[in-house]
Amino acid sequence: MKIIEFEELESTNGYCGGLDLGSVEDFTTVWAHRQTAGRGQRGNRWESEGAKNLTFSVVLHPVFLPARRQYELTKALALGVSDWVMDEADSKRVEIKWPNDIYAEGKKICGILVENKIGERYETAVCGIGVNINQTEFGEGAPNATSLQLLTGREYELRGMLERLLESLRKRYEQLAKTGHQAEGNPIDEEYMKRMMYLGEESKYVYRGETISATITGVSQWGHLQLTTNDGRKIECEIKEIVFSRQ
Ligand code: BTN
């Protein structure tokens, strides 16, 4: 596993975007101790205190996945990170908030941003991962954040943590390579759904600007969230179309 380490980058995903990704080996990892313009989901910034947390991107070539099953990679990554959080955080309650945020004890500990290149098949994925490790204070922009140190009271050495996390991702990636094509009885699909936050619970959402009460029922093969509203409407939506009222 090749880890390319930087003191500072604007964004590890941005750095990978400038590489000739076709010739980069799977699991090549770009790790920055601090990012000055970390990218998050929905065009947001990813704020992370320098040298306290992990901010890195892993380059993968999931060529074994047909383009229509690209969301399987998102699920495998979310499982790989959540497996590792469960091990490191003394079996605290760990959940996946759709699409791929990792929550521990109801607070966000990790965000994932996958940037894909897809033709007829999957070509490359730059998998950007930010995990809160030793940060203990979070600003107004992250009111519901937590870190491993807040969960366990321990202080962590970052390189060892990164290596173990990459090992956990590799196990799930190998499982994905074996089973990712299976539409039925797919273990990654099943475990992802078991860990999904709010599944089957009625809650409020803002959907296309309208407040609705609805229950999450599943995720489509395209990765769209599926909900049923209180008045029986079935909805499928992308990340930009819905806001969770509960953090
Ligand atoms: C989210 O908004 O939840 C996704 C956050 C992803 C942050 C990581 S940190 C490393 C990588 N480089 C970036 O610029 N973003 C991702």
Descriptors:
247 residues; alpha+beta; BirA Bifunctional Protein, domain 2; 5-stranded antiparallel β-sheet; 24% helix; 32% strand
Write the layout of secondary structure elements.
Blueprint: E1 3-9, H1 12-17, E2 28-35, E3 54-60, H2 71-88, E4 94-97, E5 101-104, E6 107-118, E7 122-131, H3 148-152, H4 158-179, H5 187-194, E8 202-207, E9 210-219, E10 225-229, E11 234-237, E12 242-244
Parallel strand pairs: 1-2
Antiparallel strand pairs: 2-3, 3-7, 4-5, 5-6, 6-7, 8-9, 8-12, 9-10, 10-11
Helix pairs in contact: 2-4, 2-5
This protein binds biotin.
Short description:
By secondary structure, the protein is α+β, with helices and mostly antiparallel strands. It has two domains: 192 residues, Bira Bifunctional Protein, Domain 2 (BirA Bifunctional Protein, domain 2); 43 residues. The chain contains five helices and twelve strands.
Describe the structure.
This protein has 247 residues and is of the alpha+beta class. The chain folds into two domains: 3-194, BirA Bifunctional Protein, domain 2, CATH 3.30.930; 202-244. It has five helices and twelve strands. The strands form two sheets. A seven-stranded mixed sheet has the order 1-2-3-7-6-5-4. Strand 1, helix 1 and strand 2 form a beta-alpha-beta unit. Helix 2 (71-88) packs across helix 4 and helix 2 packs across helix 5. Biotin (BTN) binds next to helix 1, strand 3, strand 6 and strand 7.
Uncertain spans, ≥5 residues at pLDDT below 50? none
Give the CA-CA distance, first to last residue. 35 Å
Q: Using the 3D structure, state the CATH architecture of the largest domain.
A: 2-Layer Sandwich
Shape: globular
Query: How many distinct folded domains?
Result: 2
Assess the beta-strand content as a share of residues: 25-35%
Described by strand count, sense and barrel closure, the largest sheet is: 7 strands, mixed
Bound molecules: biotin
Instruction: Determine the number of helices (DSSP H or I, runs of at least 4 residues).
Output: 5
What's the Cα radius of gyration? 18 Å
The total count of strands amounts to: 12
Strand order of the largest sheet: 1-2-3-7-6-5-4
The CATH homologous superfamily of the largest domain is named Bira Bifunctional Protein, Domain 2
Q: Give the proportion of residues in helices.
A: 10-25%
Using the coordinates shown, work out and report the CATH topology of the largest domain: BirA Bifunctional Protein, domain 2
Topology as a string of helices (H) and strands (E): EHEEHEEEEHHHEEEEE
